[in-house]
Write a structure and sequence with these properties.
Two copies of one chain form a homodimer. The first copy, chain A, has 421 residues and is an alpha/beta fold. Chain A folds into two domains: 3-225 and 398-410, Aldehyde Dehydrogenase, Chain A, domain 1 (3-Layer(aba) Sandwich), CATH 3.40.605.10; 231-379, 3-Layer(aba) Sandwich (Aldehyde Dehydrogenase, Chain A, domain 2). Chain A has helices at 3-22, 27-43, 45-61, 66-72, 76-91, 130-141, 155-171, 187-193, 209-218, 241-253, 269-285, 294-299, 308-312, 328-338, 351-360, 377-380; strands at residues 99-104, 110-117, 120-125, 145-149, 179-181, 202-206, 231-235, 262-268, 289-292, 304-305, 319-325, 343-347, 365-370, 387-389, 397-399, 405-416. In chain A, helix 2 (27-43) runs antiparallel to helix 6 (130-141). Chain A is globular, with a radius of gyration of 24 Å. Strand 16 of chain A pairs parallel with strand 13 (365-370) of chain B, so a sheet runs across the interface.
Chain lengths: 421, 421
């Protein structure tokens, strides 16, 4: 075993030990800790900005793209936002200890489900350094310890944030292991982390599809992940055309680079002419490039053809595919074939079709007459989001604090035995 | 790609296709199907017994142990029990479609969690052929298709059971893929299954620790598993001695070979003398071999010493380790160090200690004054059990029909957009 691998394991062991202390903190203790964490981020703002400056000059030297640099930058407003996020997490209800259901058995046993922390949560993430404090806040509030492995570009920034947070832990007499930042950033280190099955309970990767696939391929620890969002909006024959256009513009244009943005619009043939001729100039005004099926091209003659690959694509840009369908059945079948189980919208005034779409489409978020952009932990009312899952095990869709807990059975009796002698 | 691997993938593809049909069945349709499945098992009883006879004669030829042979045997009472199990599953409430929570957002959006099937559930199991029909019943009732890979010893029996169940599917015009039995039994076939990430949603291995570790090491698909049960009973200073003895005898002796049987009893030093001198002859009468810590051996002089390995052991036999502790704290620490997160009991008359044990012990089932043997899906009121999970992701503890579902977000609006223009 290499020295480094010993080190990673030793760090995970300290994190695990800390997790059993964090699991027992009261809600008040956790909330005070989060407030202190917010305070030290502001107190040590200059150290964090200095560290970030070092990361940025390295990144520029390595020729990182402007988009990557932008994700990396920490300045006063961004650090204030990180602090505010921690304060907001402090104000969320504590999921730990919640009894979600209680029932009695015929023999008098009282059985309950009760939420408990997961234990140690490993986050593997790329350039954005704010994930360091966001993840620490969410994991601690839900009674877990966190084992963080950030990206190499943000190495110094993450270290400075972790240093600040360790001051907060120290002032509450909590072990530094509760927020563990792994000091190595190569993929070999990830590989080693992914085999610490006795010490880490779940791995949440956040970043590009390459990183997420690497984690999923190599992990022996359960992984919660999401690859991509190919989100659809179906404009039913009975749709309110203006509403359908508003929802389309919001879904496609308000932030095209995120996973809950629309990629494909499915239009019922009975309304296609009216809807498309009215929507096209508005989309054009917003700079959207349209690609359509053969039937769409008969209505909008100047647009590009959409091929099979287009319907599978997550454009992450202002491109939209259009397909005309003859029924709700065909829309549902298209989503089942090309979708990514992320988020789907129906725009309709028809009661039966709204019900049928909600019943038959089993993506993580299914909406009637609302924008796909609401598929987000904050917008749905989960308070804050640790990530989003498009695999169905444990959590499906946006994940808030509850997704960082599990449930145990609590059984209270008066001496009941199963096989009376 | 070998011909077989193509075959396995093709079968999984058929199973996946069937899963989207099964997911849409109404509760009535599913219940009728399960009733028919029960009926055909009885109708084709003789074919199943004949197939089982072939397996048994092979097993005897291969020198299988009596215990293994016993698990393999199918006779009229056992087939009737399988049919009854299917009828009982038909009578359980349908988890699919259940809205577990609904709330409104300030903008008027109505958000709900709704249960949906997982999709395709793969079961990998060893000798007991009844798992074939039990798993099929539970998976279909929860709206899933099932991909079964049974043990080589039960090859013909499993095939005969699957044939019967396919008759039931056919008579309800459902595709045979809904219950897929993989016709190969070697480990290579398991390896190939475990890489079908796009076709299978979850893998549940049932059998020896070797099989379960193999599945967990090699799966790219999420796995729900449990390795072993090292269950504890803590006899607190305030315990009712007779109750503690009744619970111990039930927990240890009613079925020592199962995972919810007790392995270690922790006794508070203030009650140790009274409890142990009263319990020892009763345990002896039940044929239990005792192993104790140094302090126990001062009270029960004739017993064997318990070493470190004993406290980690899942005996699966009539052996019990005993340790004397000085406090609830020490009991909780012992469980954290040696336990398997399965099931723990406290026997106490003290209100504060009962609460503290329930709060601090985060095993999957924690009981006050009740036998560890209640840690079972049927006994806790889940209706039927597909397995038990000692990992915390998705499910923790006994798993019933609900554990075979996930939840989607259902959002209903009136045209809400996230960023009004």
């Amino acid at each position: 075993m290499s020295e480094r691998s010993y080190h990673l394991k030793e760090l995970a062991r300290e994190c695990r030990k800390a997790s059993s202390i964090v699991a027992q903190l009261s809600t008040t203790e956790k909330n005070k800790l989060l407030q202190t964490m917010a305070k030290v981020l502001l107190d040590q703002k200059q150290d964090i900005i200095d560290a970030n400056t070092r990361d940025l000059s390295k990144a520029r030297g390595n020729g990182l793209s402007d988009a990557m640099i932008d994700r990396l930058v920490l300045n006063t407003p961004r650090i204030e936002k990180m602090a505010t996020a921690l304060q907001e997490i402090a104000e969320l209800p504590d999921p730990v200890g919640e009894i979600t259901k209680t029932w009695y058995r015929p023999n008098g046993l009282q059985v309950s489900y009760q939420r408990i922390p997961l234990g140690v949560i490993a986050m593997i993430y790329e350039s954005r350094p704010n994930v360091t404090s966001d993840a620490a806040g969410l994991c601690l509030k839900s009674g877990n310890a966190v084992y963080l492995r950030g990206g190499s570009e943000a190495f110094s920034s993450n270290q400075a944030i972790a240093d600040a947070l360790h001051h907060a832990l120290e002032s509450h007499r909590l072990p530094p292991g509760a927020i563990t930042l792994v000091p190595t950033t190569d993929r070999e280190a990830i590989l080693e982390m992914l085999h610490l099955t006795d010490l880490i309970d779940v791995v949440i990767p956040r970043g590009g599809e390459g990183l997420i696939r690497f984690v999923n391929e190599n992990s022996r620890i359960p992984v919660i992940k999401h690859y991509k969002g190919v989100c659809h909006q179906f404009v039913d024959a009975s749709a309110d055309v203006d509403m359908a256009i508003d929802l389309l513009i919001d879904g496609k244009c308000s932030r095209p680079g995120v996973c809950n943005a629309l990629e494909t619009i499915l239009v019922h043939s009975q309304i296609a002419d009216t809807f498309l001729t009215k929507a096209a100039p508005i989309l054009d005004h917003h700079g959207v490039t349209l690609k359509g099926c053969q039937r769409t091209m008969r209505i909008l003659e100047s647009i590009q053809p959409a091929n099979e690959d287009d319907f599978f694509a997550e454009y992450l840009s202002l491109t939209l595919s259009i397909k005309i369908v003859d029924s709700l059945d065909q829309a549902v079948a298209h989503i089942a074939e090309y979708g990514s189980d992320h988020t789907e919208v129906i725009v309709t005034q028809d009661y039966a079709n709204a019900r049928e779409f909600l019943r038959r489409v089993n993506s993580s978020v299914v909406l009637v007459n609302a924008s796909s952009r609401f598929s987000d932990g904050g917008e749905l009312g989960l308070g804050a989001e640790i990530g989003i899952s498009t695999t169905k095990l444990h959590a499906f869709g946006p994940m808030g604090l509850q997704a960082l807990t599990t449930k145990k059975f609590v059984v209270q009796g008066d001496g009941q035995v199963r096989h009376p002698l």
